[in-house]
Design brief:
Elements (H helix, E strand, L loop, with lengths): L4 H9 L20 E4 L3 H12 L6 E4 L15 E2 L8 H19 L10 E5 L2 H17 L4 E4 H7 L14 E5 L3 E2 L2 H14 L3 E3 L4 E7 L2 E7 L2 E4 L2 E4 L5 H6 L8 E12 L7 E4 L4 E5 L4 E12 L7 H14 L8 E11 L6 E4 L5 E5 L9 H14 L13 H4 L17
Parallel strand pairs: 1-2, 1-12, 2-8, 4-14, 12-19
Antiparallel strand pairs: 3-7, 4-6, 5-6, 9-10, 10-11, 13-16, 13-17, 14-15, 15-16, 18-19
Length: 417
């Protein structure tokens, strides 16, 4: 089924009775060529590109819960390519290009809005770093504009420019950045993969990974054993637990990242704004709610909920940056389980087990990386070789110390990233 404006009008006038399910609900087969563990955005994108780019259709995506119920539906929806380190810069540039063609590729409206991202800076040192970062982005082929104080004020006059502790000096503006509808991304990739023959199997928990003579042979699930000669693990905050089923210990800690949304308000925030001194970021959804978040909760946990001290910290940062937010009523909050690596950068690589692949460690970058991650992980699984833009996402960099990508310059402690 293809979507069009005419189809929407016709269905609206006839009671919306002509829509069909967006993807099938098949029973698992006994054997597949490839099994993807994890039906989040990354797993579904991987399956889509395996089928579309590489013609591999005997593929199953196994999801413990339901499509859209994990981190892909628990984030602040930001899309950007404003990274500084070699390796990260190329990858997120590649991912943003895929974002820009995604809706046409999927024939599905993911509400991708390139409204721009402004990273504020509050000191001479931060301005210098923003200039270097902007040059890296431009050299990579992306867009970057260094705004002075007046330039930021023109775009976001509601900010507190004269805060005594954190005066706003200017901002790094990334016009092609923006937001997208998180669950629509999951639905679109699920629909795209299913339409090419991929089996998307919900309520199917993986309970074990079968390995013989150093090679993967399949998985054990709550719906029976499934054989496969290639298995991809892409389960975000559960990466350490699932990898342990194959006898692996990953350099991953799982932390909670909270997000919040307010009541619907009239349009007031046009861009995504990030606060350089409080790790606070905010945008406004199409329904009018202010969507915002901040730091990790700073302790390892698998609970998809947060603690009150960090909620208080996020609210304080919001009030410091834009006092007007104090009158908005917070409707709800949620927590996503972040898979944090020691250098704050991801892993897309083979494992020591033949036929077993890993895609994890996305830290804060998971949502914006969805199409790039899926594209690169599919390339790795299909060809056995890393995609050129993901060559630096090696698993063994944490063992050897070679090629570490400390994007924030905060050292090798998971919860600082």
């Amino acid at each position: 089924m293809r979507f069009s404006g005419l189809r929407v009008i016709r269905e609206g006038l006839t009671g919306n009775k002509g829509w069909r399910p967006h993807w099938r609900d098949p029973a698992p087969k006994a054997e597949y060529d490839i099994v993807i563990i994890g039906g989040g955005g990354h797993g579904l994108a991987t399956a889509h590109y395996l089928a579309k780019v590489h013609g591999l259709r005997n593929v199953a995506v196994l999801e413990k819960g339901y499509i859209g119920g994990g981190n892909v539906g628990r984030n602040t929806t930001i899309v950007r390519a404003n990274y500084n380190m070699p390796g990260n810069s190329e990858f997120y540039s590649h991912s943003l290009k895929l974002w820009e063609g995604m809706e046409e590729d999927l024939n599905y409206n993911v509400m991708h809005s390139q409204r721009g991202v402004i990273n504020l800076f509050h000191s001479d040192g931060q301005r210098d770093y923003a200039a270097r970062r902007a040059n890296t982005m431009i050299n990579q082929g992306d867009d970057a504009v260094l705004l002075d104080r007046a330039g930021v004020r023109k775009m976001a006059p509601y900010l507190d420019f004269d805060n005594v502790r954190f005066p706003i000096y200017g901002g790094l503006y990334h016009p092609r950045g923006g937001t997208a509808r998180h669950d629509a991304v999951a639905w679109g990739f699920a629909r795209g993969a299913d339409s090419r023959g991929v089996d998307i199997i919900q309520n199917c928990e993986v309970t074990g990974i079968d390995i013989e003579n150093g090679a993967v042979r399949g998985v054990q699930t709550s719906r029976g054993a499934i054989r496969a000669s290639k298995v991809g693990i892409v389960v975000a905050g559960r990466s350490g637990q699932v990898a342990a089923m194959a006898g692996m210990r990953l350099p991953i800690e799982s932390h909670i990242l909270q997000a919040f949304v307010t009541e619907g308000l009239k349009p007031c925030i046009d861009q995504v704004i990030t606060f350089g001194m409080g790790h606070f970021y905010i945008s406004q959804s199409d329904k009018g709610g202010l969507v915002f978040g901040g730091d990790l909760d700073f302790y390892a946990s698998y609970a998809a909920r947060g603690n009150l001290p960090m909620a208080e910290h996020v609210m304080e940062a919001g009030m410091t940056l834009m006092p007007m937010i104090g009158k908005a009523k917070v409707l709800r909050s949620w927590g996503g389980i972040m898979d944090m690596t020691p250098d704050g950068s991801p892993i897309i690589d083979k494992t020591p087990v033949d036929g077993l692949f890993i895609d994890c460690g996305w830290c804060y970058g998971g949502f914006k990386a969805v199409p790039g991650s899926g594209h690169c992980f599919a390339h790795l699984i299909a060809t056995g070789n890393p995609h050129p833009v993901a060559e630096k996402f090696r698993l063994d960099r944490f063992r050897t110390g070679v090629g570490l990508m400390d994007e924030e310059g905060t050292g090798a402690q998971h919860n600082l990233h």
